[in-house]
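Escalated from tier 1: 5'-deoxyadenosine holo job.
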Amino acid sequence: MSDPATPRKSLYIETVGCQMNVLDSELIVAQLRRDGYELTDDLHQADAILYNTCSVRQHAEDKIYSALGRIKHLKQRRPDVQIGVIGCMAQKDQKQILHRAPHVDLVVGPGQIGRVSELLQTAQLEQKPQMAVSLARNAGKTLDVLDTFPTYDPDRAPEPTPQGATPHQAFVRIQMGCDKFCTYCIVPSVRGPEQGRPPELIVEEARRLLAQGVKEITLLGQTVNSYTYRHGDGRTTRLSDLLALLHDLDGLLRLKFVTNFPLDMTDDLLQAVRDLRRVSRYLHVPAQSGCDEVLRRMKRLYTVAQYDEMMGRIRETVPDCAVSSDFIVGFCGETEASFQKSMELVERSRFKNSFIFKYSPRAGTKADDRFADDVPEEVKKRRNLELLALQNAISVEDNRPLIGQTVEVLVEGPSKAAGKRSEDDPSGIGVTQMTGRTSCDRIVVFTGNLRQAGHLLPVVVDQVSAVTLIGRVVTSESESVPVAEAALS
Ligand code: 5AD
Ligand code: SF4
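Tier 2 regenerated the structure:
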């Protein structure tokens, strides 16, 4: 905790990218709070401005470089303001960031975020920019490289509580890095080698978060279902074991994990999802393409037949499970015929939703070295829209049977559209539009009450769209119909 005599400083932090980044930002905020920083959402007032960045696609990087350009004048007017670039882009571009934006004070890779506070102080004392990045994967012996990607989350201290999107949700990292090296992907070089965190640390962290009122824990890993931890005595703990260890902890209502790699979707894991009722009936398993030739060039290590077989096992073992996917359109050499195969995979897989991305070449990846980015931007755009339109049509079609059914919703909080308190709430008791999710990860919007956040509620579905169910909280016995999706606990 900070010394009460220390003057408060304010911190503005902007986060782009995946859930790993959201968690990293929480940890940085917790770290700086202990130094006396308070969060502000006005960057003009801030003493420190941090950008937690993403390198997965060019667009995400462009956004950060433009933001840095826009705040240059701030630094000219108030030279004491400290500006930091954290995360994957910091690891990837390193000194280039200081060349392109000399007003930056701090460049910190994702393996070094535990040092942000120390480096801010050094930058101020020495009046020169500070950089902390991990070793490149080919820059030394494996153990030396691993040393620069610590497997602990040092800033998840008991107090203050670092929170997820709402006070009831928390991310817990169980795996760092990635060893798959898909040819298009920058992640293995910026987030380092795959390492599973020790299960004892994970359980301890989960226990602490639950004691602080967290109800839903999402386990994070780039290929979370490859999680394996080898103990000193030769035992191994897999993801299915970890789910069982966490499932009965006091206070836990929902347990999720993202993101899965198709080849590692083993039967023990599917059986754990089936048997452990607090585990969400939801699996995110990116396919990336429906064409074998493209998958081979992406080095995804599986064929379309293997992906189909995996979908078959999911449907058979956990019939009430929703599956979502990621696709890249316009990857090098993707023909119209190969794209059609992705359309067919979406058509037959009945994903709950798909995240669809236009291929973006990344310097330093195998695809960028070896293949031409030969699909024109216009074609990428058209394929993106076509695949999305097909997926949306399927999502609406598959949501429609839920009309009239009761779903169990873990309430998150007021919906984005609703203010903290609705204007037509003369009673002042907090009636407003609330949002939450079903066990299958479907978003549900209903008229409710702020006090319902963090609770499980039965909601009857009245209307559906591709991404949202609109419903009413079940209030009387007569309205209660058999529960769709997962059973009420
Ligand atoms: N271009 C476009 N999309 C990409 N993804 C990863 N790398 C790239 C790239 N170079 C997508 C994949 C992955 C998701 C997180 O981002 O679909 O699953
Ligand atoms: Fe990137 Fe492939 Fe690893 Fe996912 S599995 S993070 S796409 S290299």
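The pocket of 5'-deoxyadenosine (ligand 1) is lined by residues 56-57, 184-185, 286, 288, 326, 328, 357, 359-360, 362 (CB under 6 Å).
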